[in-house]
Amino acid sequence: MDGVRQWLEKCRNGISAKPNKQDSDKPNRQPNLFARFPGFNSDSGFHSSLVIQDSLCRTLLKNSLTGISSLPDRNERVARSVDLFMEEIRFLAQNTSSPVIICAVPLSLLEAMGPEDVSEDLDDGPEDSLGPQLDFHDMLKAGAMQQYRTPIQIILPSTYDSTKLRQQTKLKLGRELQDEATRAWNIHTALYYKAAGVPWRLPRASTELTVCYVGVSFYRSLDKQALLTSVAQVFNERGEGVVVRGGHATISKEDRQAHLPEGRAYELLKSALASYYETHRTFPARIVIHKSSRFDESEKSGFAAALTERGIATHDFLWVSNSGTKLYRAGQYPPLRGTLLTLDEREIVLYTRGSVPFFETYPGQYIPRPLRIRAENTEQTQQYLAREILALTKMNWNNTQFDGAEPVTLRASRQCSSVLRYCSEARHIEPRYSFYM
Fold first, then answer.
1. 275: how many CB neighbours lie within 10 A of its CB?
2. Whose CA is closest to 421, among 141, 180, 187?
3. Residue 285 confidence (pLDDT)
């Protein structure tokens, strides 16, 4: 806890940018590649400040941590670790007015829970495993949300103490560490949003229609025995999300993809629009649905019925997935971010990651993979829809990397799915995306 507080105090006055690797006798060829963190105080950056007092802090007892490591079953160790944090979250939620609770997971607890279990916020958690393995990150998020309606921010030791990275790596509990300024950007942007701030938004001309962007993806229940269930993440142009838990889905025998029956597609979008109206006091003039699998006729009919019922005449249904088509250009760098290839009147390939002239390089580690975007039922042009998707890749407030690989509609819906599988269907879920990220 002291380590987190000291690091946040350090960030308050700014963090220098990571220096580029270059020969000492050559000028900096990529001066924009890494950005400094301007600080988090009332005079710069977010023009806000963090209040961290002793009365707002709680510690885990050492003997409780020791007892967890002796438990024979891994799931039991994870569940007990969640219980430890939930006990302190309960006290802070009930006795303070803190809008966000930071959970600094000690290294000893990471070791007790086992490898590849805990993921720090600002990225997706681990992929589905073959068995019903509990995930500390998602289970704690779900518990804090449903029991105390409080967003939390999980921080791993290497974030505030880079010397802990080697130990995390040895335990297979960490990923490659970002430079300190980038870590500061990510953590403070997430805290700002979870405390009800709006870091940035999509531009929208006054002549454009109000738009609601909906992402639909699917996930299995925790025991992996139940049918796939759908979840929608709803956004307006300000990026303010509304999470909706949908009904059961099925795997089609024809294409082996997840689909919703007509009635459930209707109910899902109807619920999404109702939540949108409750939040914004109006319905949007246009609906854009991004789905991780193709739209079948039942889904199209169900979605269309919900739109007709609300008098929404303008809509675009898009199937968004990874593309097997790749482009090449002269030189050593991948295609430019925003490169668009039209395959036919319904299908396009879009590079949401790629080389960026401002950086004078490609800011990624791996060869970028473009998106395959198929128009299932659309009214806008392919170029217009591609520009929207490109803009939505910048709207993930869980990470300040501006060139996300996929639109936040789908990325957020998958992230919400990871937490929702730990939520009781009989209990209320929070509509705001900040509880899931």
1. 17
2. 141
3. 92
CA 57 to chain centre: 27
**What is the sign of the dihedral through the CA atoms of 62, 63, 68 and 72?**
positive
Indicate the CATH number for domain 211-435.
3.30.420.10
What would the pLDDT profile of 330-386 be if each residue is shown by its tens digit?
A: 888 899 999 999 999 999 999 999 999 888 888 888 889 999 999 998 999 999 999
Measure the CA–CA gap between 36 and 183, rounded to whole angstroms: 11
Q: How many CA atoms lie within 13 A of 421 on its CB side?
A: 27
8 Å CB contact between 400 and 185: yes
Q: In this structure, how many other beta carbons lie within 10 angstroms of the beta carbon of residue 324?
A: 9
Tokens encoding 195: 């405390």
Coil/strand/helix, residue 364: coil
Asked whether 267 and 248 are in contact (CB, 8 A), the reply is: no
63-111 residue pLDDT tens: 888 888 888 888 999 999 999 999 999 999 999 999 999 999 998 888 8
Averaged over 227-249, what is the pLDDT?
Answer: 75
Q: Whats the size of the chain, residue-wise?
A: 437
Residue-averaged pLDDT of the chain:
86
**Which structure tokens are listed for 134?**
């509990």
Domain spans, the chain: 2-194, 211-435
Give DSSP secondary structure letters for 163-187.
GGHHHHHHTT---PPPPHHHHHHHH
